[in-house]
Amino acid sequence: MSTEHLFAVVMAGGSGTRFWPLSRRLKPKQLLALAEPERTLLASTVERVAPLVPTERVLVVTGHHLAEGTRMALPSLPPINVLAEPIAKNTAPCVAWAAYHALARDPDAVLAVLAADHFVIDGAAYLEVIRRAVTAAADGSLVTVGIKPSRPETGYGYLEVGGEVGPGFSHTVLRFVEKPDAVRAIEFVQSGRFLWNSGQFFFRADAIVRAFEQHMPELARAMGGVRHAPSRAEEMRVVDAAYAGAASISIDHGIMEKAERVRVIPGDFGWSDVGSWTTAWELAKKDDAGNAGTAAFVDARGNFVHAPSGKVVAMLGVSDLVVVDTPDALLVMPRERAQDVRAIVDALKGKRDDVL
What we know:
By secondary structure, the protein is α/β, with parallel strands linked by helices. It is 30% helix and 25% strand. It folds into two domains: 6-272, Alpha-Beta Complex (Spore Coat Polysaccharide Biosynthesis Protein SpsA, Chain A); 277-355, no CATH class. Helix 3 (91-105) crosses helix 6 (205-215) and helix 6 (205-215) crosses helix 7 (217-223).
């Protein structure tokens, strides 16, 4: 399997709400070191695929307001490889732009579409899954990676898996399923037929362009000029117009759920979407009582603390709390409510925009 034409397309948007108050509008979670000390999730994502994709073939699609922070996080990335979206329109326009851009640079381009803010424990196993996915995509199939469920999670989408087909040990995808309730999640896991949808996609650039032409023709027509743009300025004029008229829709809903040749590669490499402060607690080193972070813990269990270096935080007689302290904001909540941080951000909008 050759990867000489492989481009990594790293989707790096985000509103900075899930990890408030550490994350902010101009510093969403991919620009934070949440899983590894001193290394942002974005940098980890790029370094993870470096054995297969050199930096010159890494494209990072991000918001225009995050372009500078992205360049600072990836100082070796060529500036032309930062694709700064004029407005957030979900992932379908993002992938379309990257596909046409890659085709302009290499007619044989193959895309590995990755999230900027996920974490992987077993890097070698992950690279092997990518190799298999690229192999499976060689015949024009649209390929995704599914994660073997470790629990009946209600926060993820699922893929129902069919029989094994074609190269790369890929399987057919029978259907995509939205985030289920607890009862259905238990049924999915017990059946053995479902995988978590990891939101990672692999396809030849020309194959995904054909899929856009078939299933999202207006976007394809609007974005097609990117391939022949003589300069970045002209490319941005095309992109600005395309985004202005584009529907806000994910690549899952816009393309993958409608396409005919969709395949999935099962993966088991210690994957996490780092979706909340609870996930940060799960990934962190803990003491014997399950506490993690920079604090003095006395008769305390299952807590997570993030505080500025040098500040003393003491936790006495409390359990399962998240405490996040920053110079201008303090968050204290039960760990089980970590998915509700967005409600705090919503409550602060228009009142304390200076801390968002």
